[in-house]
Fold:
Amino acid sequence: MSNNFPVPSPATHGELPQQENGGRPSPVIAVRHLVKTYMVGQTEVHALRGISLQVYPGEFVAVMGPSGSGKSTLLNLIGCLDRPTSGDYWLMGTPVSRMSANQLAGTRNQRIGFVFQGFNLLARASALSNVMLPMVYAGRSSKERERRARRALQLVGLAARVNHLPAQLSGGQQQRVAIARALVNHPSLLLADEPTGNLDSRTSLEILGLLQVLNEQGITIMLVTHNQDVADCAKRRVVFRDGRIVRDETIPVPRSVQEIWAAEVKQGSDGTGVQIEEERSHE
Structure:
């Protein structure tokens, strides 16, 4: 078996935003003193305690921390799925914290792509129809919806699976459809919440490799994970504890999926581990 892990090489997704006078691009995400407090019965739960963070174009940020540390709360706020109790949030320079409900919905649809652990595909719709769905809400013409959906599926290596239902696809292929759906409106930001959580180790590598390739093409990614191996493949690691950021560090040399795959293949061929089988496509 080859040591090279099979990862698609998509075409460039789009140019990065123009740089500021100082030479550094404007941040995609900028949050300042972000606080989120929930009421559970008579008890206040402080999910976020004054978070400040900036994420720049082309970054791949892994957000880590134990359950209840605030990482998923932050992702929900950045994804415009919830509002902060206090603090400010800008997305591509736009003050999200002051948006109306309709403006938030439009921002979610146009500027943010979501990838979830559970795929969230429509069971009775083809891969093509699933990917087209965000463009229906965006008011795109049927011709443009189909053209862009086919292009997004090609981008993730599923050009030959456009008419397959989710049940006819493997778990990894379903997550690829979900990633294509997240990219179809050309968002400024891709948010991924445990995207490999429901996948076996081999398929997890496949999805992680795809995310690395997309990031190399300029797509900004923020990923929540409990898996240290997944986080090691990002360019930056942000660690949460008790609603605060306790560590924010650049990963000088992110680990590549190719390296992980080669190590696992070697382990299997040495007889010290289980030989890895390539995923068989569901015809």
Observations:
- The chain has one domain: 29-269.
- Residues 166 and 174 are 6 Å apart (CA to CA).
